[in-house]
Amino acid sequence: MPYRYNFITVPQVNVERTDWMWKAFLPEGSNRDHPVVNVFRPNAVDISMVDFPVTIVVVGGFDPLQDWHKGYYEG
């Protein structure tokens, strides 16, 4: 079960609010596999040859999207 479901009922940043944010900022009819937000999806632009600088990824322990952030790190 995705970590974000631990936040279904919390008042700050809960699942309902994060779902609203996804819908508000993605083109109508798209989902979280849209290439703008999921650069590791099967049809995404290949960025494997880009020379990115060394980067530290910090994910908050109570961040409801920590699974999503870890996916970027592991990608």
UniProtKB/TrEMBL annotation:
Gene3D superfamilies: alpha/beta hydrolase. Keywords: Hydrolase. It holds the Pfam family Abhydrolase_3. It comes from the Eukaryota. The keyword NAD does not apply. Residues 11-74 form the Alpha/beta hydrolase fold-3 domain. One of its GO terms (molecular function) is carboxylesterase activity. InterPro entries: AB_hydrolase_3, AB_hydrolase_fold. Its EC number is 3.1.1.1. Belongs to the 'GDXG' lipolytic enzyme family. This is Putative carboxylesterase. It comes from Rosa chinensis.
